[in-house]
Specification:
- The protein is an alpha/beta fold.
- It has 10 helices and 8 strands.
- The relative contact order is 0.16.
- Strands 1, 2, 3, 4, 5, 6, 7 and 8 form an 8-stranded mixed sheet that branches.
- The radius of gyration is 18 Å and the shape is globular.
- The chain has a single domain, classed as 3-Layer(aba) Sandwich (Rossmann fold).
- Helix 3 packs parallel to helix 4.
């Protein structure tokens, strides 16, 4: 297996399926068919779980970008951005600070093409067709648009569960290659699939999802536990603990019921680069 951006449209993609869960139409019929089969894996009363989990994830992204703006950060690097729908980084950042610069990165061609159409005329926002598994190459291209000597918001939202590595590489090392390059005061936001504390009756559908992702998309869907998620923040200063996305940076009284499957499907946190 070699790394690099993907251009094929002959099978479903993570971005296309996630887009459908966010209310979009996907990029191809393969996306729509795969999303339908995934939803069918859930019991009848829980088939809205993927949609609500995607919505919780996007709301977390919006809150995290707002937090970064409050801390004076004006540069944003969104890895694995997916398709542009509601709550895109530039739509949150630039109305508050027109000088904010945003770079989106995705290795699927569909999201890149849609962002390029959307961003026509927006000189402060750019999209890269690149593979996050190549940190050196991605950062070199991002540095043409962002000043990496100044604080940056780095987002990896709902992407690392789908990353397949080869050559004995380690996902923690890949993430560390990004966070080690961030200037002091930068912000790192992560969300990721987590199977810990899931009720026993919900785990079979989630593990079946992994089989569907492997079959339909050719990618894994890996659930981690909290201690494994915490390792991604080694060397950083946590702003929030690793917890449910609905609780990260949430306003008092806005938390979602603990028993909600969609709430318990992912964990995340926000951290700062010390110094």
């Amino acid at each position: 297996m070699t790394y690099g951006p993907r251009c094929t449209t002959d099978r479903a993609t993570c971005g296309g399926v996630y887009d459908i869960h966010l209310g979009g139409s996907g990029y191809t019929r393969h996306d729509r068919e795969a999303a339908r089969r995934m939803v069918a894996e859930f019991p009848a009363g829980q088939r809205d779980v993927p949609e609500r989990a995607a919505r919780f994830n996007r709301q977390f992204l919006v809150r995290s970008v707002g937090y970064a703006l409050d801390q004076g950060i004006r540069q944003f690097l969104d890895l694995g951005c997916g398709f542009p729908r509601w709550g895109n980084v530039h739509e949150v950042a630039q109305p508050r600070h027109p000088d904010a610069r945003v770079v989106y990165v995705d290795y699927e061609l569909g999201p890149v093409e849609e962002y390029r159409k959307l961003l026509s005329g927006n000189g402060k926002t750019h999209v890269l067709h690149a593979d996050l598994r190549e940190p050196e190459r991605v950062l070199a291209q991002a540095a043409e648009r962002l000043d990496l000597g100044e604080p940056v918001w780095l987002g990896m939202l709902c992407v690392l569960s789908f990353v397949r590595l080869c050559h004995g590489e380690d996902l923690y090392d890949v993430v560390r290659q990004y966070t080690d390059r961030l200037a002091p005061g930068s912000c790192f936001t992560l969300s990721i699939g987590c199977g810990e504390d899931m009720p026993a009756e919900s785990l079979p559908p989630f593990y079946l999802l992994s089989e569907v992702y492997e079959r339909e998309l050719g990618t894994p869907y890996v659930l981690r536990n909290v201690s494994q998620v915490e390792r991604f923040f080694d060397g950083l200063s946590l702003v929030t603990p690793v917890t449910y996305l609905t609780d990260c940076l949430a306003e008092p009284g806005r938390q979602v019921s603990y028993t909600d499957w969609a709430k318990r499907a992912m964990r995340g946190a926000v951290a700062r680069v010390p110094g």
